[in-house]
């Protein structure tokens, strides 16, 4: 997985100009933005007639406002249309990279464009770099906004559980550069308790984020090298070792399967925790599909644990490189449980993982979705600075003849009423 490009400075003054001498150390240079200092803005009009301020930073001309064109799939920041003027709209990735989405003569930035922007800040700014791009009042901070970029903390929208998060504390601007099959690069600005970060990062393409267009024609190399590198090398299939174990808490017996170096539950967890839900809201599904759980609260049987991001990545890599099926999706599923996949003529499940499409429970009471179409599996969670939890979420889905296997990110709410619930497959401790 590509390493994040992280740029962090420790100087404390807010700056506008470069050092008097390019050779002068940043630690000793003294910049300031006079109270009457102003930026010179231009403007550009989109296809819907919306007008945006523009600003030259380094050698490039950027939009100084977030995009508001109502095209493709979009959402309002924090689910409030009154935020559109300042925060722009949140777009899904396919909309953001679609042809002619930006105004004529403009394009969606690439990873390299954002890296060059941060390099400009690094060379011309002796300060907290977030202050060079962000609007202070919107971030509840007192840094000077001296480059005119005008970033607002619009947060994000996650389509898989229809939730908005991080409004007021973070923003991620899409780039046109994919990192992997289901992730893409972008510019991330975040503010936590006593910390501020700005970096080129990557995120799941199933989310919706704001867009800033950049002037000029789109380069021919917008896509990342990940798309031109070779496929995962195929190795000889090795049959899994299949067995069973007993959950001593309630005496339930589960099948297990050893895939590569790791042993996984081959059935969904069905232990009656304090908070658990029947798949699709029907107890008739409990025996086959197990229960749905809040990832941050579920417990595994003794000697087992929730999988980490690395565990999920190892599983997918091993299955992809050793599978007999035509795709990773069919190698992981119990085909007869997937209505849309059942008639495809594919075999599958050669690793006995037998994923079941139990769907998910949304935070709203008695609100279930995607039963028969998607299997979500919880990973290990950690507590965020917002008193919620996040962690990896394995997604196996089949909708409209399109199979997908990806690792997404789970976000909980601050209580059970605000948290989604998913299936669980524990991994055996070594």
Topology:
Elements (H helix, E strand, L loop, with lengths): L4 E2 L35 E4 L5 E7 L2 E4 L10 E3 L7 H4 L1 E4 H4 L9 E2 L3 H14 L5 H4 L22 E3 L4 E3 L4 E11 L2 E10 L2 E10 L2 E3 L4 E2 L25 E7 L4 E8 L2 E4 L11 E2 L7 H4 L1 E2 L11 E2 L3 H14 L5 H5 L27 E2 L6 E2 L4 E5 L3 E2 L5 E11 L2 E10 L15 E2 L2
Antiparallel strand pairs: 1-12, 2-3, 3-4, 5-6, 6-13, 7-14, 8-9, 8-13, 10-11, 11-12, 15-16, 16-17, 18-19, 20-27, 21-22, 23-25, 24-25, 25-26
What does this structure look like?
With 430 residues, the chain is mainly β. It has two domains: 5-227, no CATH class; 241-428, no CATH class. It contains seven helices and 27 strands. It has helices at residues 84-87, 93-96, 111-124, 130-133, 286-289, 309-322, 328-332, and strands spanning 5-6, 42-45, 51-57, 60-63, 74-76, 89-92, 106-107, 156-158, 163-165, 170-180, 183-192, 195-204, 207-209, 214-215, 241-247, 252-259, 262-265, 277-278, 291-292, 304-305, 360-361, 368-369, 374-378, 382-383, 389-399, 402-411, 427-428. Strands 5-6-13-8-9 form a five-stranded antiparallel β-sheet. Strands 1-12-11-10 form a four-stranded antiparallel β-sheet, covered by helices on one side. Strands 23, 24, 25 and 26 form a four-stranded antiparallel β-sheet that branches. Strand 3 (51-57) and strand 4 form a beta hairpin. The protein starts with a strand and ends with a strand. Residues 1-37 and 222-231 have low confidence and may be disordered.
């Amino acid at each position: 997985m590509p390493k994040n490009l992280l740029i962090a400075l420790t100087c404390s003054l807010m700056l506008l100009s470069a050092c008097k001498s390019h050779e002068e150390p940043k630690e000793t240079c003294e910049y300031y933005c006079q109270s009457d200092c102003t930026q010179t803005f231009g403007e550009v009009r989109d296809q819907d007639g919306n007008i945006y301020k523009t600003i030259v930073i380094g050698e490039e001309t950027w939009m100084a406002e977030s995009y508001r064109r109502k095209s493709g799939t979009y959402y309002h920041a924090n689910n409030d249309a009154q935020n559109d003027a300042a925060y722009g709209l949140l777009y899904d990735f396919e909309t953001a990279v679609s042809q002619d989405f930006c105004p004529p003569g403009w394009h969606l930035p690439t990873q390299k464009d954002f890296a060059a922007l941060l390099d400009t800040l690094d060379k011309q700014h002796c300060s907290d770099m977030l202050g060079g791009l962000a609007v202070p009042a919107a971030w509840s901070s007192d840094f000077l906004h001296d480059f005119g970029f005008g970033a607002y903390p619009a947060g994000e929208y996650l389509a898989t559980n229809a939730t908005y998060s991080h409004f007021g504390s973070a923003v991620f601007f899409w780039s046109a550069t994919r990192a992997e099959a289901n992730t893409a690069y972008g510019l991330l600005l975040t503010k936590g308790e006593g910390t501020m970060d700005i970096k080129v990062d990557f995120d799941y393409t199933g989310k919706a984020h704001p867009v800033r267009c950049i002037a000029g024609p789109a380069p021919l190399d917008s896509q990342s090298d990940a798309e031109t590198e070779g496929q995962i090398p195929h190795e000889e299939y090795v049959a899994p070792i299949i067995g069973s174990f007993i959950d001593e808490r309630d005496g339930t017996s589960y099948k297990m399967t050893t895939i590569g170096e790791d042993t996984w539950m081959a059935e969904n967890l069905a232990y009656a925790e304090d908070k658990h839900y029947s798949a699709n809201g029907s107890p008739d599904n409990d025996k086959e599909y197990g229960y749905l759980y809040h990832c941050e609260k579920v417990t595994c049987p003794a000697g087992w644990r929730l999988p980490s991001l690395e565990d999920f990545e190892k599983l997918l890599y091993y299955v992809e490189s050793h599978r007999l099926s035509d795709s990773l999706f069919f190698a992981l599923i119990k085909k007869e449980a997937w209505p849309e996949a059942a008639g495809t003529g594919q075999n599958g499940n050669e690793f006995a993982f037998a994923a079941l499409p139990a769907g998910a429970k949304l935070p709203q009471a008695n609100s279930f979705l995607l039963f028969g179409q998607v299997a979500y599996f919880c990973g290990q969670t950690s507590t965020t600075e917002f008193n919620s939890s996040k962690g990896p979420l394995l997604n196996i889905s089949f909708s409209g003849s399109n199979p997908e296997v990806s690792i997404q990110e789970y976000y909980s709410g601050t209580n059970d009423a605000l948290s989604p619930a998913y299936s669980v497959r524990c991994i055996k401790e070594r």
